[in-house]
Amino acid sequence: MASGISHAQTSPEKNRVAQELVARLDQALLKTEGLVKANLILIKRSGDSWTWDMSVFRKGEDSLSLFESKGRGLEYKILFKEDGELIYAFNALSRKIFRKTDEEKYESHLSTGFSFVDLSGNSYQANYNPIVQSDLEVGGKKMKRVAMRPIVPYFYSKLVLLLEPESLKPIRLDFHDKDGVLYKTLNIKYGPIKVKAKQKVTKEDLASRLEMLDLNTGSISVLEYTEVDRDVKPDPSLFELENLNRL
């Protein structure tokens, strides 16, 4: 699968290029201020599927994600503070709030392939050091490849990012567990999303669909963005912990 991987990663130029490629991952993933609407879909190996309507309110370093299903209504809220450094989850069915710390941040959310930290919007560039930047051949096509290690390891031992060689769009992110075993893969797909800004509605080509394959369970989780409203100005009270358990 691989060809001609170079391990000459010590030069400042290579490190700078690798950092820039990781920064492109942060730029591609949708972390806009205002309101973002999406669907979160879990498809199990058996073919059974579940869908949640997802709303993400973001202001500065804080965001609040709501998950609603047609059968149960509001099921979950997740409050992310300080760009995901602090994570609080509110289970609307049990009416309990949990603070996710250290390895708990890497637990699966709603049995999907997405962990709490995956949904937090935290910066990959700030939390991972690139260790190898090279070319990789996938299906006869040459890709840019960056391997990254976490600055503070809790569960992910290594991430591997693949980018298109010409556009440098991030297209795949492989996750290795604490034993170094590849256990899930995120495919990033681009397409038009309806964007409202300054009272005008346009369509922008963004990372509109994130598909996470869980190699342990065989399930596929899809995060599909449907609409962005940058005109929404979330009230600061939305991001206060004492208001998290309000329905």
UniProtKB/TrEMBL annotation:
Keyword tags: Lipoprotein
Top-level lineage group: Bacteria
Protein name: Outer membrane lipoprotein-sorting protein
InterPro entries, sorted: TP_0789-like
Organism taxonomic ancestry: Bacteria, Pseudomonadati, Spirochaetota, Spirochaetia, Leptospirales
Residue span(s) of domain Uncharacterized protein TP-0789: 81-246
